[in-house]
Amino acid sequence: MADPEEHAHDLPECPSAQGAGTGLLPAELRAWMLLLAATGAVEQRLHSVVKERLGVSHDEFLVLCLLAEQPRAGLRMTRVAELLGRPKTRLTYQIACLQHAGLVSRRSVCGDRRGVEVALTDKARRLLGEASAALASTVSEALAHVMGPDQRAAVCGLLPGMTSGEKTEPESAPPPALAPDTEPPQVTV
Fold first, then answer.
1. Cα torsion 21, 152, 65, 93: sign
2. Please, which pLDDT band fits residue 105 given cuts at 50, 70 and 90?
3. Beta-carbon count within 10 A of 43 CB
4. CA dist., res. 153 & res. 137, Å (int)
5. Which of 82, 117, 139, 151 has its CA 20 to 30 A from that of 75?
6. How far is CA 126 from CA 34, 60, 170, in A?
7. Band of residue 139 on the pLDDT scale cut at 50, 70, 90
8. DSSP state of 167
9. Greatest CA span in the chain, whole angstroms?
10. Angle CA(135)–CA(137)–CA(140) in degrees, nearest 5?
11. Where are the alpha helices (DSSP H) in the chain?
């Protein structure tokens, strides 16, 4: 696979970042296009960093990230599939690969014969901690490449250090997750 930096000068600016408000699309669709471009840029750049640092696929990395934000008890597999928008059969394969690598553990849920809960192992927590600075830097660089100054300013509250250029230090405790009935912050694009 080609290095994304090698052809960075060939990449056009995200269409939604050009002349906002001059096209046919309403603001919501322009914002959606910017999110798609940002997501694609992040995924493309993270691919090699995730493989090198953690030895897992991008989809397996998403499972690890989701579990990293949970208490040590973990999550039910059905909830992981729901949150990631993945079919349960595909998730079962990914979890099996992660378990084989020693990165997640699986256990039956007490009182529910069919329920399975997955959680990160200490090995996974250590690897994520060691890779967190490189992963954060990769995300910030990818977003800076796709988003203009106004968009970066709008998301800087969600991504510490993105506009200042400083490296993000891993926190000793993960930030609290939003309560199920809490609305995420509004971002104006």
1. positive
2. very high
3. 14
4. 17
5. 139
6. 33, 16, 12
7. confident
8. P
9. 58
10. 110
11. 27-54, 58-68, 77-84, 88-100, 122-146, 149-155
